[in-house]
Write a structure and sequence with these properties.
With 484 residues, the chain is of the alpha/beta class. It is 37% helix and 13% strand. The protein has 15 helices and 11 strands.
Amino acid sequence: MVGQSVAELGRALAARQVSAVELARHYLARIEQHRGLNAYLDVRPEITLAQAQAADARIARGEAGPLTGVPIAHKDIFVTRDFASTAGSRMLKGYMSPFDATVVERLAAAGMVTLGKLNCDEFAMGSSNDTSFYGNVLNPCDRTALPGGSSGVSAAAVAARIAPAASATDTGGSIREPAAFSGVTGIKPTYGRASRWGMIAFASSLDQAGIMTTSAEDAALIFNAMLGFDPRDSTSVDRPGEDYTRELDGDLEGLRIGVPGEFFGAGLAPEVEQAVRAALETYVKLGARLVDISLPNARLGIPVYYVIAPAECSSNLSRFDGVRYGHRARQYRDLTDMMKKTRAEGFGPEPKRRILIGTYVLSHGYYDAYYLKAQQVRRLIADEFQQAFRQCDVIAGPVTTGVAFDFGEKAADPVSMYLSDLYTIPGSLAGIPGMSIPCGFGAKGRPVGLQLMANYFEEAKLLGVAHRYQQSTDWHLRVPPGFE
């Protein structure tokens, strides 16, 4: 049962080979067995088993869908009524939301069973998963390494088989990077495809919900239930629903794969390049054609991102002031003193750093020089992707410059940590869909990911391209030692 995918578990449940309650108990036992990973912040077996019983009743009535009874864990950036929602921060310790995020709501409506809430970088800020107030998370592929951030625990949970799937969010690469570091499949859709309602905001023009699974097929099944227009979210795109599994078995003959020269320059670890090049050769054997493309402004992605994202975070996190909800300082002189002490106590170093940067770039005299200029360059990057897609159908390259880094390796040098998002940030700024799939191993036997990107609203194509690769390889089926 441990190695079974979402698709396989769904078929087993439909065939009555296993019940949802049995499945829930199996994963709850594994969660307890691997508590040392520090993956789950809130597990409530009574809630999980009640949801599983409801799923079994639904199956018995013949009302089940392909996801009914399949367990899932949620990143603690999505608010939930039945589990605490903390965003990995002291600021929201113990907070219970009065409603579910749309992503949670839709997957529950499809019959998925919630296992609990997963640890994450504080307010989704970080590329390492060592900024959470609740402690570091271990990478199951190598316990001396971090799983990447901010959705590293979602990736680690799937890799360790303590959840068959996990929700996640991507702002500058926070799905794709941890998926690469942990050897799982992670995908972010086009900006606006997934509702942001009930997702605790970091950078509103960049944040996007996605999913971590073992395979592209699983991601497609979950996207069928998860994505769609939400009138409660002003950034939600109103488009007809579609079947994201429809291109899974498509032919790759003649597919044009764009390979950006800028993604294979100085700084890329040789073993990562070797694994990515080998994956591209597999695609050639499957009938695809490699096309050299150029994304010259992609190098500007990091400075642009670290102006726009902190500016938006400064605005979004201003709501945490101790007045309405969340942490409040115990001792203070007046309202102003209460807010100052509350924010000083409630936020960790990384949110404070980004709030300060964001407040600075939005201040009088600097807005035009920094924030407005960054938005103009962002448009250039997006236009550049559109030019590239006139030459190719998908874009492929590395996810990160190296494999997962060790504990504390980037802690003293946050700029070095930010640079790990070099290849993922451009796609986030453009708002296009992107994903990471396992394609080998690098230094110290740590996983390497292949990044795939497609044009707006072409998630089905992207998933099909990934699925065909996974049909020809077994990297995504490798289970970390000790978690078999």
